[in-house]
Each structure stands twice: as structure tokens, then as C-alpha cells.
Amino acid sequence: MFADERQKIIYEYIKKYGAVTTTNLVEKFCVSVETIRRDLLSMEKGGLLRRVHGGAVENSPMAKAFELKQRNKEFVEEKIELSKNAISFVNENDIIFVDAGSTAIHFAQCLKENFSNLTVVTYSSDVFNILCYHENFKVILCAGHFNKTENTFYGSLVMDAIERLNVQKAFIFPTSLSIGHGICGYHEEFCQVQQKAISSADMVYVLADSGKFEKKALIKIDDMKKEYQYITDGELSSELEKIYTENGFLIYKGGAKEK
Fold first, then answer.
1. Which of 185, 173, 146 is nearest to 65 (CA)?
2. By C-alpha distance, which of 68, 107, 75 is closest to 213?
3. Please, what is the end-to-end C-alpha distance for the chain in angstroms?
4. Lower CB density within 10 Å: C or N end of the chain?
């Protein structure tokens, strides 16, 4: 098989699965590792993919910026699944930070249904309203200016409040994440709050449905860090999961839906 034919197949595979491992390609085409490396290098120079340790990923497209009302209608099953997956990292009596957004709503509901005693810090009015009347929850709302579209507080008052607090675990819900571009969002004022929460936490958990992987957004919240835990749903492709694992990132994936 000629190189251009092989590269066309590689490109189609990456478009479908988001990533491909060098090992997979060597086995698929029965060629040497060096041949595959030359293919990937050529394709990267042509802007068709981005090489990473262990293989290649799709050139990260921009995640779309939708308002909360629209996001609440998308990837609902995936958000519920990853939220159920994420609560396994919460223990009774924990002090946690819960981010804002559509995934936060499902995560907060899971907390309400599965725990008796928690201290929850948030800047989301949605999260606050779900949890505030739980009998044995202590809920701390960091308030300031209010964004009616996102049901979220922002600004220096929020930042000052979070800076004064120490939490054991921060659960962050970004717009996108990518090995090359990091953990990203669109709203500068919310990204600043997320950064402050990350710096105040002993452990960081990044919750993202499978559609957010290997995409980028306008503002970088933080680098992808190996000490963070990344939690997603079962629809993340096995190729992307392998690439992340080979690059040292811990991915906790739910079960894939039956086709």
C-alpha cells in the first residue's frame, strides 16, 4: 500500500475515533514503527492531525459556545452517567467545591440522593438550590455579581470568598479538554473562579462528557495535569482512552451504551 493510501485511512480513522495509537497502526498495516512515524509526521505537517506520545489525535476543533439553557438539553445521559461515576470519589463528611454548568446540575442531584453529610462550596445558584435544604448538608454559596444566563455568580467577591476557603476536593466542569491545549472554557470570569477553586483544593477532579475531549475553547483554565483525575462517560473511544493513559492521565470511564 502506498503512503498516501495509508494516510487517507489513518485520517478517516482519526476523524471517527478522535485518536489512534502507533501500535494499532503498525498492526493494522503490517509496517514498521518508523513507517507509521513518517506517516504521522507528514500528516501533522499537512495539518491533518497532531502527534502525541503513543500516536496521534485529531487537530482539536473549537468547542461550540452555547448558553446553559441549550447545554441542559445536550448529552444528558452522558452527564448523568459520569456524575454517577464521579460520586464514587466523594466520601461522607467531605468538604468539596462544585463548579457551575449543566453537568453540575446532575452531579449535585447525585450528591443529594447518595450522601447524608457534606460541606459543599459553590458559586452556582442551580447547585445551591438543589442542595441547600438537604437536612445535613452545609452549603456555602460564594456570591457576587449574578449572570442570569448561566445562573452563576462571578467577580471579585466570589474570588475573595473562595480564596479564604480550603476544600478537600474540587469538581470542575470545563467546556473542553485537550492534551495539547489544556483544560478550557469560554467565560473569562468563570474561568478565573475555576482557577481559584483548583488552587484551593487538595485534589482536583475534571468531569467532562466524551464530546468535550480533544477540543479547545477560547480561554485556558489550566494545563492537563497528571495528578488530576479525569471522569467521563462510556462513549469515549478506546483509542482516545489509550492515548490519554499512555500520556499519564488517569481516565475513569463509565460503561458504554448498548448499540
1. 185
2. 75
3. 33
4. C
- The pTM assigned to this predicted structure is 0.92
CB 122 within 8 A of CB 142: yes
Please classify residue 246 by burial: count the beta carbons closer than 10 Å to its beta carbon, then call 0-12 exposed, 13-18 middle and 19+ buried: middle
CA–CA dist 18, 238 (Å, integer): 10
| CA–CA distance, 111 with 118 (Å, rounded to integer) | 9
Determine the Cα–Cα distance for residues 197 and 201; give it in Å rounded to an integer. 6
Three cell numbers at 244?
A: 490519554
Neighbours of 248 (CB within 10 A): 11
**For every one of its 259 residues, what pLDDT tens digit does the chain have, with 9 covering 90 and above?**
889 999 999 999 999 999 999 999 999 999 999 999 999 999 999 999 999 999 999 998 899 889 999 999 999 999 999 999 999 999 999 999 999 999 999 999 999 999 999 999 999 999 999 999 999 999 999 999 999 999 999 999 999 999 999 999 999 999 999 999 999 999 999 999 999 999 999 999 999 999 999 999 999 999 999 999 999 999 999 999 999 999 999 999 976 554 3
